[in-house]
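Please study the protein below:
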Amino acid sequence: MSTDQVSVALAGVLDALTLVQEQLDALTESGQRIEATHREIVHRLDTIDAGQAAVTDLTPILEMILGRSIDDREIMKTQLGTIATAIGFAHAAANGNRAPLPVAVASDPLLERFILAQPADLASEERALTDWRNATSSITTGELISFLTHQQHPSPTDTPESRVLRYRLAAITRAEIKGGGPRRQDHRTPRLRAIERPRLA
């Protein structure tokens, strides 16, 4: 082989090696891209699994929220019914029919602050109210105030009926305390009565 032929052969080998190297580089880059894609797929699968796990964990919470929503809706329906009944009785009372609210309505916590401040029923012939009206006429103001404190803070063991009755009795007690009268005024000391006695012109 002449020198020129050897040079040509070596040039061919170098070209072939260069081409192989380029192919190897391309394969390496392709492998790296495939590996990166694989890592991304694994990462996404892990994310999906974590998301599914979170959804699985949320199921009891969502069920609880749904249950509470249903309960709240039922409570709202009951309260709207209570309000509607109260409005109906208020309308009837405005037209002269002073029937007391049904116990189920009057004992509803929604109306408690109104029931606590209700006016005294001084016309009812119910035995408990009549007896209490008669009893309050012989009780001192201090004793009435003590009774009122108990009447406005019923026991947790009270039934709805007894709680409503307590509040009705409390209204009579409040009216009696506010009414005062000669009997209660006489409980003041003579000096205080003399000071408060209006002077004659």
Remarks:
- DSSP finds eight helices and no strands in the chain.
